[in-house]
Amino acid sequence: MAASRRSEFIREVAELVQNLQQQRDRDVDTVLGELTENAARAMPGAQYAGITVATRNGKVRTASATHRYAELLDEIQQHSDQGPCLSAAWEHHIMRINDLTRERRWPAYCREAAEETPIRSIMSFQLFTDHHSMAALNFYAEQPNAFDDEAAELGLILATHTALAWNMFRRDEQFRSALASRDIIGQAKGMIMERFKIDAVQAFELLKRLSQSSNTPLAVVAREMVQAEHPADDRDRARGV
């Protein structure tokens, strides 16, 4: 691919990430879908793309995909417990299969993938990995040898932009969740203070003891308490009133 065209693709993806930063109210599934679609269009030779997420306990899911083939290949990785996407995420920054029918790594995965799909070329890039989970950005093509070294170089750039955008939205979701938890705990504290005529510190300590004794997260205990006190309000919210 010409250097000018590659630069144009990179600029387009960078602009997408910048635009997403200004639209924090969008849900993460929509964001991942747009990132995956744009990555597929930017990668020469790629017909499909997807993002694979896996956990240390062996669960694999498709976070986003441009085609059913990407989801099916993740399902094959799930029950065969092997594949290029998992290896890219856990072990290496990039994995490439030039021809599924000739590949000797991951034999169970390659055999079933070649039988169940027309996919022959796969290239996978690590997005993130931590103690609990990982993710990989994957590109697929029905032709063998669809991805060369230049495509691998571009893929690393696309994966970096995708990872940055995703991490941004993950942090935002965690922040919004923390704010919501703080609000519901505050409501529960106010109820306890009013009912038992105690101060805020004592009310919080009571909530903590309830959480510990029931082995239930503090925010869940608080939410259940507020819902029990105002069931009609919850029904109204559920109906959108």
From TrEMBL:
InterPro entries given in the database record: ANTAR, CheY-like_superfamily, GAF, GAF-like_dom_sf, GAF_ANTAR, WH-like_DNA-bd_sf
GO molecular function: kinase activity; RNA binding
Keyword Coiled coil appears in the UniProt entry: no
Signal peptide (residue range): none
Domain (ANTAR) ranges: 165-226
Keywords tagged on the record: Kinase, Transcription, Transcription regulation, Transferase
The name this protein goes by in its record: Response regulator receiver protein
